[in-house]
Amino acid sequence: MKLGKKNRFPMDTVDIGPLQLKARKVDFDLSATPLHWIPGHPVAGHTLNAYHLLFPEVERFFIAAFKEALPEIVDPRLREDVLGFIGQETVHANAHEDSLDDYFQRNGIDPGPLLAQSRYLLGRVLGPREFRTDRARRRHLINRLAITAAFENFTAFLGHFVLNCRWDEAGSDPGMTALFRWHGAEEMEHRTVAHDVAMYFDPGYWRRVRTMVVIFPLVIWISSRFVWYMVEHDPAVRSSRLRVLLTVLRDGRAGMLPTARTVIGSALDYLKPSFRPDDTGSMAQALSYLATIESRAA
User: Which of 88, 142, 170, 290 has its CA 20 to 30 A from that of 70?
Assistant: First the structure.
């Protein structure tokens, strides 16, 4: 996980050992959250809001694939991890979706067209389908598990980012900040599960390469569409597509968004034969943050 001579991610110095993944009870109040929830950085806020919209359907795609795979997993430890993963991702999807209508509609943006696009892509194009043979069904399942692992590489990377970003320095909305950091910390907590499941069904290296080659441009394309929709429907932000791109790059340098260099580096790391999700970020940092979430809930 190196870029030049510097590690992009802080590594854990102590092996924490196996974790028991669990869904946490959370509650985030976005009733007063403004559309520009990172003051002075409206494009960064819209970029993150795009994922706020995408996450429910992305995570339901993960859940459907894992539920279908579960009967074929005989390893007891992996089964336990998969059940914990499903529980956490279900809460993630619900937490983001519960605030969608109120937050976006209250701030004058209709999320309907974007939600329809994500449901079509993840539900109908990439999601579960009927096949005439069990072999074809299983091949499609393995492909979906590989897609899940590739996506989870990005969610773990984003989880590390949100735990170390500089939103607070800009005076970000505490409710939205807490929502993203809780989600990011749990993505870090279960960062190995999707990769382990994909390797359980197909340990071949080339499927991982093929999947990332498809998923990386897909993620960039759909993210760009969602971000531009947000900007286009925000009368307070008048900007061209080129200026939006330049602003995204600038916000990356300011610590409000991941930099292009780290995004590309994360994808390239995933393509290494020696790749392990454990190398992304610090598990100790993620668990420390989750401990604060649990104490507040208690």
Answer: 290
pLDDT tens digit sequence for 35-86:
999 999 999 999 999 998 899 899 999 999 999 999 999 999 999 999 999 9
Q: Are strands 2-3 and 6-7 parallel, antiparallel or unpaired?
A: antiparallel
The pLDDT value recorded for residue 7 is: 46
Contact 248, 47 (CB under 8 A): yes
- Per-residue pLDDT, averaged over 122-149, amounts to 91
Q: Where does the pLDDT of residue 132 fall: very low under 50, low under 70, confident under 90, or very high at 90 and above? A: confident
DSSP 124: I
Calpha distance 297→160 (Å, rounded): 22
Burial of 148 from C-beta contacts in 10 A (0-12 / 13-18 / 19+): buried
How do residues 94-105 score in pLDDT, each as one tens digit? Answer: 988 887 778 898
Q: Are 111 and 233 in contact (CB under 8 A)?
A: no
Location of structure tokens 């399942």: 141
DSSP symbol at 50: H
Q: Is 248 helix (H, G, I), strand (E, B) or coil?
A: helix
Question: Cα 229 from chain centroid?
Answer: 20
What's the rounded Cα separation, in Å, for the pair 180 and 164?
A: 12
Backbone angles phi, psi at 80, to 5 degrees: -65, -45
Exposed / middle / buried, residue 97 (Cβ in 10 Å: 0-12, 13-18, 19+) = middle
